[in-house]
Known about the structure:
3-stranded antiparallel β-sheet, 214 residues, alpha+beta
Amino acid sequence: MELPVRSGHDLRDTRVDHPVTASDLVFDGMIWGIRRETVDLGAAGPVTREFMDHTGAVAVVALREIDGVDHIVLIQQYRHPVRTLEWELPAGLLDVEGEPPWRTAVRELTEEVDLRAGRWDVLIDFFSTPGGSSEALRVFLARDVDETLSAFAREGEEAGITGAWVPLEEAYTAVLAGQLHNPGAVVGIMAAWGARERGWETLRPRDTPWPWHA
């Protein structure tokens, strides 16, 4: 098969709602469930798929200049499914009904690292595992960052979170060296580095429509 040549300007993911003829929650977990759906793909016929029915999430690249160098906040947290103490971005689930994603990001930044920001922009959107999960993530860039007036009382597994300011350039190098594996951190760090290289001209307003989040 001879593949056509396409312009990168034409590349755009498109949301398509094929008819779903059956949908069952086959496992209802503590946070999310597993759903089995049969979808009619037209000429390709009906197919049945099982996937994690996920609420979606946001992550935050909080940027601050320290001694003339751009730094970002990373947190360290244990993730049991992969048996790893990961470096991640402050992040959280979109589990408050009616809350705009950027407001969730504001809340998570405060709750996880006791920071607030005066400027918020959309940095990048992505799917974590589109073949097996409905999770869509939006990463925000937070600037004009300073500490909150009081510390948030973290509980449970979040009580063990530690954080640090890391030079953006060094975080970018750590990603390329294979030292970081969390998808939000990898995508967010790469996007922040690339957006800065373009003078932040790729940023979008904080309330930019997001078709994959109701």
